Amino acid sequence: MASSGSGYDLSSSTFSPDGRIFQVEYASRAVESSGAALGLRCADGIVLCVEKPMNKKMMVTKNTPAGRRIYAVDGKTGLALAGYPGDGRQVANRAREEAANYLETYGSEIPPDVLAARLSAYVHYFTLHGALRPFGCTALLAGYDAATQRHSLHMVEPSGSCFEYYAAAAGRGRQPARTEMEKLAVNPTRAAAAAASGGAGGVGGEEGMERGQQLISVAEGVRQLAKIVYTIRDSGGNGGSGASKDGPFEIEMSWLCEKTGWKHVGVPKDVMEEAVEWAKREIEAEGEEEDEDDDEEDGMEE
Amino acid sequence: MFRNMYDTDVTVWSPEGRLLQVEYAMESVKQGSACIALRSSTHSVLGALKRSVSELSSHQQKILEIDDHLGIGIAGLTADARTLAKWMRNECLNHKYVYGTSMPTGRLATDLADRHQRTTQTYVRRPYGVGLLLASFDKNGPHVFETCPSGNVYECYATAIGARSQSGRTYLEKHYESFPTCSKDDLIMHALRALVGCVAGDGELTKENGSVAVVGKDEKFTLIEGDELQPYLDRLELEGGNNNGGGGGEEEKDDDDEEEDEAKEEDAMET
Amino acid sequence: MSLSLQSGGSSSRVSASSFSATGTGIVAAANAAGNQVTTRPITTGTSVLGIKYRNGVMLAADTLVSYGSLAKYKNARRLLPVNSRTLIGASGEYSDLQSISDLLIANALEDRCTADSLYEEDNTNEECAKEVWSYLRAVMYQRRNKMNPLWNDVIVAGFQQNPDGSTSDTPFLGTVDKIGTAYEDDMLATGFGGYIALPLMREKYRPDMEEGEARALLEDCLRILFYRDCRALNRVQIAKVTKEGGVLVSEPYELDTFWDYKGYVSTKAGMGTDGGW
């Protein structure tokens, strides 16, 4: 590693000669080794999903505050975390405080973009001082703005940078996850372009598109995220470096959508089970298809 | 002198994205004598091996009562644990004063973990060099939580920390599925059997170095030590179980080393 | 913006000092440190009544908020749900009641967000009525010791909790006043109701009262309070907590009143007095 040993990488208050802050980059690396956190902005809501490797036996996984990776911030905002769980809790606590403060001051719920901005300011502050260290976690924030009737997904990274996304992924396997996500119809502009080039009538514009059928629904989003988690685990996540990190794992999913009254709640267990079943079937079918392709057999259509 | 340049401050990330100071603090937990915790559907039990520095000294207290419904077992720096215990007692008292009910264990455990975490992110303090096992019975039933210096917290059906805890953990992993239906006494016996494996060399589990505590439905947190522990040890003796496999000292040690490496990987701070 | 790591964690609210409402429109006096404290209330609500009955607890209050002797707001709600199974009602300074309600609702939201599960059906984190009551006691007593009380007498209604956290069949009814005195009883009344309504309630009360009987009794008491209490109104609300239905607060409605008594109808001059009562 070029940076290592240069002496410019020992404090987040030090720039390297080429203008980088290595400590922040190293902190990002801590996130890369954690179970994935995924978020999808669908037509009618947002789905969050985390992959939780179960490295320890004898763990309680249901109805416990320990080992959680998705947090409720207020009734209508959810936070999914990748990285150090301890750091993640700190960020979640801060998000709750910001939400509560905003409510107390302004009498209305904090809009997701404001919360994301405040959270990124908090995370960013830890990249400025030698006496602090940057957070080793990335947060996906799903929220609904009652004033504009718009739902949004933000991602706050250890550097403090924050963007809004149609689909976001953090943690181990985020690259293959992003590749998979790019195949999904979640970007209205692109969906519109696709519809236009397909000659399927006029382009409805972004608004029309968001309400229209071209974008996937949360129900479909749940299935697709389940499939992505299983896909990235199958491929080992680290550029196919094998199944070394594979082991028992659990999926935790939450959503907020029209159906839940824009409340952020866990995806019902039966819906999740169905999605996981579907994902496994789908992956298996694709696997067979590939096998058959390898054998130069025809007849499968997809 | 140091292994590398990234391991002297808590606020410095290594190029691999690790916090070495925190990982070293996790090591200090493994220096402490073993401590285990397990639960049935009605009781939670703590068990610990107490050390004494010399023949002339008393044994170090390993299990501390926090409230009527909750106690902790510790492994690592005892003085750090005392600071945390004092804070936890305060939290429980405050909760009782304000709400008139006992502190929910989950809330205390996560607040405790947050406390651990904060020391890992500021330059001014070192991380707490102690792992804690919380055993309780609250309105949601029995609980066992484990916290570590990194700020991680786990809820477990059974768990073990400290020196040579791997063999205790192996025992627990083998039997924990049968724990829910165990009676209080059976649970204590399981605790002792798990502890026996953690005794150093050819040592024995005695009423002096053994320590057990139990808490359950309608049953306040009680420490069982000394003469009160003897009947259980007698029962263990009858089973023929009270020594650490005896003779195979050398081999045993190798196993332990391997096991501890395994434990290290397990405790890596990723989820 | 404070960036301290020290804040946060669910225990922070245990120190009741995190609750510091100042600068309401209340008449205030300067204490030694130069801060302003409440010495008397300005916009006030009058009595709240509470009673246990066969399968629940019921509260009743009118909807008047007075500004001194002026009947200023005639549709103010003073019975407020704080979570799915706990209800409060308060007399005294209305802004302080709003502040208390905000605080309790914020706590309830925090409890929901820090629950052990993302699934509402698994949520056992909610405070029971007794915890809400106990918490209020701590807040009120702490404020009074700072010589800056929240100027309310509050009644808390709900259900007792079983040791396993489930809701028991036993109703809970407790009160906390502005100096932190707290007690439970089968029937309670704050403000003027403590003098006028409580004796009537004691006379008529049975532990096995049906809901209809309880409601009739409370309505009678409210009507009598309206006749006697110059700061009362016949526009009222009734609220109940039942084990099955949780908290239910009625919309404000008007009580029938009877003003045809001779003393009300004939001019005082004709009663052979000097015109006074």
UniProtKB/TrEMBL annotation, chain A:
SMART domains: Proteasome_A_N
Keywords: Cytoplasm, Nucleus, Proteasome
Entries under Gene3D superfamilies matching the protein: Glutamine Phosphoribosylpyrophosphate, subunit 1, domain 1
Acidic residues bias: start-end ranges: 285-302
Family under the similarity heading: Belongs to the peptidase T1A family.
Name this protein carries in UniProt: Proteasome alpha-type subunits domain-containing protein
Keyword Nucleus found: yes
InterPro entries in UniProt: Ntn_hydrolases_N, Proteasome_alpha, Proteasome_alpha-type, Proteasome_asu_N, Proteasome_sua/b
Main location: cytoplasm
Region span, Disordered: 280-302
TrEMBL record, chain B:
UniProt family annotation: Belongs to the peptidase T1A family.
Keyword presence, Membrane: no
Location within or outside the cell: Cytoplasm; Nucleus
Domain Proteasome alpha-type subunits span(s) in chain numbering: 6-28
Keywords: Cytoplasm, Nucleus, Proteasome
Entry annotated with the keyword Translocase: no
Subunit structure: The 26S proteasome consists of a 20S proteasome core and two 19S regulatory subunits.
Protein's organism: Discostella pseudostelligera
Renumbered residue ranges of the record's region Disordered: 233-271
Biased composition (Acidic residues): 249-271
Any one GO cellular component localisation term in the record: proteasome core complex, alpha-subunit complex
Pfam family, one: Proteasome_A_N
Protein name per UniProt: Proteasome subunit alpha type
Broad class of where this protein is predominantly found: cytoplasm
UniProtKB/TrEMBL annotation, chain C:
Taxonomic lineage from the root: Eukaryota, Sar, Stramenopiles, Ochrophyta, Bacillariophyta
Cross-referenced InterPro entries: Ntn_hydrolases_N (IPR029055), Proteasome_beta4 (IPR016295), Proteasome_bsu_CS (IPR016050), Proteasome_sua/b (IPR001353), Proteasome_suB-type (IPR023333)
UniProt keyword annotation of NADP present: no
Main subcellular location: cytoplasm
Pfam families: Proteasome (PF00227)
Task of the protein: Non-catalytic component of the proteasome.
Name by which UniProt lists this protein: Proteasome subunit beta
Protein family per UniProt: Belongs to the peptidase T1B family.
UniProtKB keywords: Cytoplasm, Nucleus, Proteasome
Keyword Cytoplasm (UniProt): yes
Subcellular locations according to the entry: Cytoplasm; Nucleus
